Amino acid sequence: MSRRKLRVVEYDRDFINYEDNNEIRRFIATIEEIYRLARKPENWPAGFLDEKSEKVWRKELNLYFEEIGANSHSNSTKIDFVLNLAIEKLYENSDEARNFGFAEMKRRSEELMEKQRDSQNPLNRIDCLNSSL
């Protein structure tokens, strides 16, 4: 899991503690409310968060992971799987997001190349200044 992935899915935190089941539960409810990865009723995320019995919501969480295909024993792998599904759904539903990703990466790589070119030869800056006159 990475901060970038969490930012892409617009999660309000940049870290998830895999050992904290309440944090995992909050993450799953938030992602499910936004992206609807599983075939759950519309009010499922709220009910899942409001559930008081730990035994019940743990069972529901395990069923959720099975339903979406996250069959790992590791919480980190399951969370990463959920993030990947959410990102995939985001990109498949939005041409704008797909274009933004490519355009943004292209712009950043061009900026990086420009900086490297300038840093490797300080005379490049002088040449650029003279050519703009």
From TrEMBL:
It comes from Caenorhabditis angaria. InterPro entries: RTRAF (IPR019265). This is Uncharacterized protein.
